[in-house]
Amino acid sequence: MENLSGMKRFAVLLCAEDSDYVKKKYGGYFGVFVRMLAEDGEIWDVYRVCNGHFPSDEEIELYDGFVITGSCNDAHGNDVWICKLLVLLNKLDSLNKKVLGICFGHQILARSLGGKVTRAASGWDIGVRTVHFSTSMKTSINLKLPARLSLIECHQDEVRELPPKVEVLASSDKTKVEMFRYGDRIMGVQGHPEYTKDILTHLIDRLLQRGYIEEGNAIKGRASVDEHEPDREAWKQLCTSFLKGRL
Question: Which residues contact residue 160 at a Cβ distance below 8 angstroms, ignoring those fewer than 6 apart?
């Protein structure tokens, strides 16, 4: 099956259920990603892989790139859909497809490339954090970026190890692998460039209500959101440029 429309086509591989808040305000997490990444003259589709909805081999051929979202599941877990996703990611790699992974997506991409994902030794990271780019990152891309950018974070797992073929592009005082790249086709970002501050504050409330985080995590996270502003426009430019082959 070929893309005969002549338009660039992308797919979001959705790895989480939509919250009522995000569904009502943004049309679900698919809507959040489309707001950040979509440009005129493109077609965007969604596959709810966490519910077992995967693209067929014929459908894969239609797409110029894929985006893997965050998730409440562990990227080091072996749920049926996660194992199936790993198979798909290996296939996308062999087909030289562009793939951008965010949070869980970043971690599962690292795992598919032979890396190791574990619980973060320092615990949850929730709030707005400063991410520092590597020297190679600053010299190897076609974007003018500062040495550091602020980014919304919400994760308790991290990429602990990466194979030598994968390049670490950014780190923070909390997480060693905040961003990585494999060649010019696969890139992972541990934080949430797609999140707005209100999405994070509502997520903090949900995590607290469900007992996933402690009150201290919630207070710290909310204070961080109040005190700092994420560099959303710069991250949007970076992620969009990668996905569209402009880096």
Answer: 115, 116, 117, 118, 176, 177
Give the active site residues: 103, 192, 194
Residues of the chain above pLDDT 90, percent: 91
Contact 187, 167 (CB under 8 A): no
pLDDT of amino acid 142: 73
Interval 166-199: pLDDT, tens: 999 999 999 999 999 999 999 999 999 999 999 9
pTM value is: 0.95
CA distance 186 to 199: 26
Distance (Å, whole) CA 66 – CA 100: 6
Q: How far apart are the first and last CA of the chain?
A: 28
Is 68:108 a contact under the CB 8 Å cutoff?
yes
Spatial contact of 62 and 43, defined as CB atoms under 8 Å apart: no
Numbers of helices and strands, H then E, in the chain:
9, 11
